[in-house]
Amino acid sequence: MRFVLLTAGAFGGYSVTRLADWPSQTGFSQESVIILFIILGSSMGYLLGGILGREVTTQFRRLEQQISEFQPAELVFGALGLIVGLAIAFFVSDPLRLLKPTWLSFLAIVGVYGLFGYAVTRLFLLRRHEVARQVFSQAAQQSRERPKFLDTSAVIDGRFEAIVKSGFLEGPLRVPRFVLVELQTLADSADDLKRARGRRGLDALTALSALDDLVTVVDADYPDVPTVDAKMIRLAQSSGGAIVTADHNLTQVARVEGVDVLNLNELAEAVRPVYLPGDRFVLGVAKPGKEPDQGVGYLGDGTMVVVTDGRDAVGREVEVEVTSVLQTSAGRMIFAKAV
Prior knowledge:
Layout: H1 2-16, H2 22-26, H3 30-69, H4 72-92, H5 102-124, H6 128-143, E1 148-150, H7 152-155, H8 160-166, E2 173-176, H9 177-187, H10 192-209, E3 215-218, H11 228-239, E4 242-245, H12 248-256, E5 261-263, H13 264-270, E6 280-288, E7 294-298, E8 304-308, E9 317-328, E10 331-338
Parallel strand pairs: 1-2, 1-4, 2-3, 4-5, 8-10
Antiparallel strand pairs: 6-7, 6-9, 7-8, 9-10
Helix pairs in contact: 1-3, 4-5, 4-6, 6-11, 9-10
């Protein structure tokens, strides 16, 4: 940029010397006037080129980062927008060729090409996420290879590895790079609980990565997006994939955004055994209940069972009969009595 504007400034300074009789007005010779104006024009071009050069470099790096995040469909639309913008600029800039001096005409034409090329490309990319999602969704329906992106909460969930090995999660499983970074942060945490969860998640990914490339890492990141949840939604939108998570809040937000979500807790809820009043089963009573004669036990999925007349059976397995089932916001609770 400095070289271009320095050259343009030198030619501009030379052109200024032809506009007036500078030797008679300044008392300098014609050669001295030419050299002086060329130096002034070149200096102005050098300074302006430094300012514009830094700005162009910053914008170029930003554009480079954005292009690295684009999917193929987005690049196609961006290229089409650039071609259309340059074609419009070609017809609009034709009258500018008549401007004098030549360097002013050159700068005006360059500005028109830059303006229309950028504006029309941005216009074509305005709804790039929605268009890309539709394109990738249609392709995924045909190929049945819709990617599923694993959230941190899903990876550190103790049930995740067993669900994957059982084959319930079809299609390629992808772990974004920013999820790995978050897992590593948890694994290095000073808090014992967080450190254990992070290491468990990394161990699960290590074990699953060895199973015929079932789980692979994708180099995707969105520096302009502050949170991991928002990055997951952006990634799923741009690729037409689904999010696998155990986070209730992420599930709700993603569905509002129109992103498909597979929630492990919803799967666990769907496969819980259904007990009706009158059903009998064997239960291990784990601890006393709140009432004097109550005992409390838990099913394999964590459902709490309150057993009437079960305090004496704490530490033992007894046969119980279901009396009622209560569904609460925290989950299902079963009331039974010892048989």
